[in-house]
Amino acid sequence: MAVLNFAKKKGGKRKPRAKKKIIKKAISRKPLKKKVTKAGVKKKAPSKAKVKKTVRINKSALPKIATIANEEFIGNVTHYFPKVQAAVVKISKGELNAGDKIHIKGHSSDFTQAVDSMQIEHSPINKAKPNDEIGLKVNSRVRINDNVYKVL
Predict the structure, then answer these.
(1) CA distance between the termini of the chain
(2) What single-letter DSSP state applies at residue 60?
(3) 80 with 100: CB under 8 angstroms?
(4) How far apart are the C-alpha atoms of 17 and 77, rounded to whole Å?
(5) Over the chain, what is the mean pLDDT?
(6) For residues 20-40, b (16+ Cβ closer than 10 Å) or e, as one string?
(7) Is residue 5 part of a domain?
(8) Which residues contact 116 (CB under 8 A, 6 or more apart)?
(9) d(CA 152, CA 15)
(10) Strands, DSSP E only, in the chain?
(11) Is there a contact between 133 and 148 (Cβ–Cβ < 8 Å)?
(12) What share of the chain has pLDDT > 70, as a percent?
């Protein structure tokens, strides 16, 4: 319940008091620095933003990405459903059949499994082609953008 402050008038009637307004001040820029010379007063322009220096990296010091000879890149994980342990995989290259062995590699996941169950729109399929988004039953947790490889 709110309590109102009332001010008394001479006639005995009460009138609610007006609320105080909060005034916001505009933030102003710093004034220009003045330089006094014999010829007169000159104004300096504000200083420019600092430029970051580029750092050169020795390419031989970087770790080399190993290409896996017995694996073929198929696609990426686009979504994961933790309750049913299912992943949505966007097939971008190659084909995937039921019974194939796949390798899922990501930032924190790295495991190999056989393809037991594949679905498109809740209907089971045996073969997935490029540009298909399939539901895939997985043994472990996967994350978005994990890479999916077919073991040859």
Answers:
(1) 74
(2) G
(3) no
(4) 63
(5) 78
(6) eeeeeeeeeeeeeeeeeeeee
(7) no
(8) 98, 137
(9) 86
(10) 6-8, 14-16, 34-36, 41-43, 71-81, 86-91, 96-97, 101-105, 110-114, 118-120, 123-124, 127-128, 133-137, 147-151
(11) no
(12) 55
Average of per-residue pLDDT across 25-51: 60
Q: What is the 3-state secondary structure (H, E, C) of 1-51?
A: CCCCCEEECCCCCEEECCCCCCCCCCCCCCCCCEEECCCCEEECCCCCCCC
Distance between CA 84 and CA 141 in Å, rounded? 11
Sign of CA dihedral 101, 119, 128, 130: negative
Domain range enclosing 101: 71-151
Please indicate, yes or no, if residue 4 is contained in any of the structural domains: no
Q: Which residues pair with 32 in a beta bridge?
A: none
Structure-token pair, residue 53: 């220096």
Number of domains in the chain: 1
106 vs 84: CA distance, rounded Å: 20
In a domain, 31, yes or no: no
Rounded to whole angstroms, how far apart are CA atoms 85 and 78?
14
In a domain, 66, yes or no: no
CA-angle at 95, arms to 141 and 80, nearest 5°: 20
Q: Tell me the per-residue pLDDT of 95-149, one tens digit each, with 9 for 90 and over.
A: 999 999 999 999 999 999 999 999 999 999 999 999 999 999 999 999 999 999 9
> Which domain CATH number covers 111?
2.40.30.10
